[in-house]
Amino acid sequence: MIPALIGAGVRLAGLLEAENRALAALDLAAAAALAEPKRAAVEAFVAAEATARRSGARAGESEREAVRGLAERLNDLAAANRRMLERALAAQDALVRVLSEAAQPVDGRYVASGAPRPVRHAAPAVTLAAQL
């Protein structure tokens, strides 16, 4: 039971690392492609952990160290993943806002007669960097 838990954890860690690399590069398409495999890996890890608990499996000394190290690795990867997902979503939101503002009608083309014409300021220049 413990080897299955370790295997599921290693698989999940690998997917988190891959997603984190994609997010660090702001490759949102690659990160999104990993969503389903990551969900499946999380489910497999949770199931393996539940099976190990139900069976009362006890880890040997070497397995205990492997599980402890894997737990720390997964915690670190998950925390980094959360931070990078939040940054990627913020960057995507900023880009959508800039594009939305740019798509607005220019200088009141559709103003009712007699109404003051709204002044539209030029949208600021935007640069996206991979390191947010």
Description:
The protein has helices at 2-24, 28-33, 35-55, 61-102. 70% of the residues lie in helices and 0% in strands. The model has no long low-confidence stretch (mean pLDDT 84). α1 runs antiparallel to α3 and α1 packs parallel to α4.
Task: Provide tags for this entry.
elongated; 4 helices; 132 residues; 70% helix
How does the major sheet shape up? none
Helix content: 55-70%
Termini separation: 41 Å
Give the oligomer, counting copies of the same chain as homo and different chains as hetero.
single chain
Summarize the structure.
The protein has 132 residues and is an all-alpha fold. The protein is 70% helix and 0% strand. It starts with a helix and ends in a 30-residue tail after the last helix.
Secondary structure topology:
Layout: H1 2-24, H2 28-33, H3 35-55, H4 61-102
Helix pairs in contact: 1-3, 1-4
